[in-house]
Design brief:
Elements lengths: L1 H14 L21 E5 L5 E10 L2 E8 L5 E9 L5 E6 L4 E8 L2 E15 L5 E18 L2 E10 L5 E8 L13
Antiparallel strand pairs: 1-2, 2-3, 3-4, 4-5, 5-6, 6-7, 7-8, 8-9, 9-10
Length: about 180
């Protein structure tokens, strides 16, 4: 489940760079203010905070994630390169870091590593701890300035890669904007 959530997060970041022609895309959200807080509603109709977004001017610095009891269970931290592009995102809940790689100022690929992967035996005793294990990679392919395909590859502990998803044809309305370059 955490792999799916991480993958969706990276896909949304890749897709958020902009559209080919904003005027051609219906329903584009153009907020007057930055996202500050995200709330969820339980079955009783009570709203509770699930995310608190922390900004430094135009750059998102971190997202505090809360459980239904109002306790922080994860903090995602963002860092940027000299061009203002996302360089890495790390989460403390599952001790992971995603590194963003650019080619010609556009996103080329993202690699996600688990910092400490704990290996346990059948009864729960820690057998070993593996360091900096590549978990998955997201590759971006372009047709001119438009993002045309995103591929997601999951890696096993034994060094083999498992192509798990490809999203061709998404570039019809996706373009790297000047702001994202």
């Amino acid at each position: 489940m955490k792999k799916v959530v991480l993958f969706i997060s990276f896909l949304m970041i890749a897709l958020s760079f902009s559209s080919c022609k904003k005027e051609d895309v219906d329903g584009v959200y153009d907020p007057k203010k930055k996202i500050d807080r995200i709330y969820k509603e339980n079955l009783n109709g009570e709203k509770y905070l699930v995310e608190l977004w922390n900004w430094d001017k135009k750059q998102l610095k971190s997202i505090d994630q809360y459980d239904s009891d109002g306790k922080v269970y994860n903090i995602e931290t963002y860092s940027y390169n000299d061009n203002g592009q996302i360089e890495s995102v790390s989460g403390d809940k599952h001790d992971w870091t995603a590194y963003y790689h650019y080619k010609d100022d556009v996103l080329d690929y993202v690699e996600t590593y688990f910092t400490d992967l704990v290996i346990q035996n059948e009864i729960g005793d820690v057998v070993d701890t593996l360091k900096n294990i590549l978990a998955f990679r997201v590759d971006c392919f372009y047709d001119g300035e438009c993002l045309s395909k995103v591929e997601f590859t999951e890696f096993s502990l034994f060094g083999t890669s498992i192509p798990t998803a490809a999203f061709p044809g998404i570039g019809a309305s996706i373009r790297i904007s000047e702001a994202a370059r």
